[in-house]
Amino acid sequence: MNIFKNYAFTICLITGIVIGGICGLVFGDKASIVKPIGDLFLNMMFVMIVPLVFLSVSSAIYNMKKMNMIGKILGNVVLVFLGSAIIAAATAYILTLFYNPLTNVDKSLLLAHLPAHAELKGLTGGEIFVNTFTVPDFLQLFTKSNLLPLILFSVLFGLATAYSKEHGKVISDLLNAGMAITLRMMRIIMFMAPIGLGCYFADTIGVVGGQILNGYLNAFLLYLVLAGFCYFILNTIYVWLAGGSKGVKTFWKHILTPSLTAIATSSSAACIPINIETAEKIGVPRSIAETVIPLGTNMHKDGSVMGGVIKIVFILTIFGQNTQPSGNGLFIIAVAILVGAVMGAIPSGGMTGELLICSVFGFSPQLAGTLMVISTIIDIPATLLNSTGNIVSSILVTKLSGKKKSYFK
């Protein structure tokens, strides 16, 4: 019963998408009659993205500074989080070179139906860099097409608030209250998600037929392979580097319970207590476990990073753009890492991650709905990787911090 309760929304979301897909196949072009409902849902989500990003990032930066999360341990945490994200992104990207989700899928119909994208033509590398990270006018910050400049502004605003003492306290209360209200509004809107995405999908399938369904199936199968490699192989390598063969045996002895918890709850946040307890059983000092694991829940999302790579390759392939190392290879990896960070730092960050991909690569924001379907179908294995990866990170941070005395019981 608890499992059904935890998965109720995901089940409803997938059911809505499946019903929409079936309706699209059965009714064809006539399914476009429900397109306004899908657009209504997407527009309501788009409206919430800007306040959600600004409030969540600013308040998170303020709270980190307030907790004095600066020093050797935080430096090791950042090193571990960033290092594992790079490895996850690179691994996913390399696999897409051998197996692209849209291989043998007719993309002509997709191109005819999906919104067009704007290409950055006639700009130098420096100009593209400037346009990606900054805007020339304050009001341009608060649009869904400029998420990276908004994130940078929010980081600076949070730091300024943290260093403004009593004046900052007033603003921080406002940020935290605004964040709570915005999250409540987001939850209300998300009740429409099964119907909204179902209608969006019905329209898409009605126009392009089953071609895009094959692409989604291929993306899901590709992610399962990646998830298995990351969970069994990469985690074993990380733990071996930290604690040798003894550490590996201890890790796999205790990891089953937190893994099942992640699968059963589909929530990294819900796994925090069991993850801290498991890390202690393995031999991680409680002070490190209580710092790394909650922080990792908000900042460390290797599963989301790998999903980001697949989404980027998926959308670039549809529009015939170069995904090879000689083309956008490094850029794909870098943006996927950023997507993972955004999805971790911002509650309900899935849609924000999709919009970030569209913004950076110059695609129409309307394509976020197409990418959000991938987020839905990979949610469970992604949660497994995100959650158990925090335990592995606490082990690596323990090693880097020199806490060897009680390491690995």
What does this structure look like?
With about 400 residues, this protein is an all-alpha fold. It has one domain (about 1-400): Proton glutamate symport protein. Helices cover about 75% and strands about 0% of the residues. It has helices spanning about 1-25, 35-65, 70-100, 110-115, 125-135, 145-160, 165-190, 195-210, 210-255, 255-265, 270-280, 285-300, 300-320, 330-345, 350-360, 370-375, 380-400. It starts with a helix and ends in a 9-residue tail after the last helix.
Helix-strand pattern: HHHHHHHHHHHHHHHHH
- Major sheet details: none
State the end-to-end CA separation.
Answer: 35 Å
Annotated CATH topology = Proton glutamate symport protein
Helix fraction bin? over 70%
Number of strands: 0
Uncertain runs are 118-123
- Overall structural class, as computed from helix and strand content, comes to mainly alpha
Count of helical regions: 17
Strand content: under 5%
Q: Can you tell me the CATH class?
A: Mainly Alpha
CATH architecture: Orthogonal Bundle
What's the average pLDDT?
81
Rg estimate, integer Å: 21 Å
Count of the separate structural domains: 1
Which word captures the global form? globular
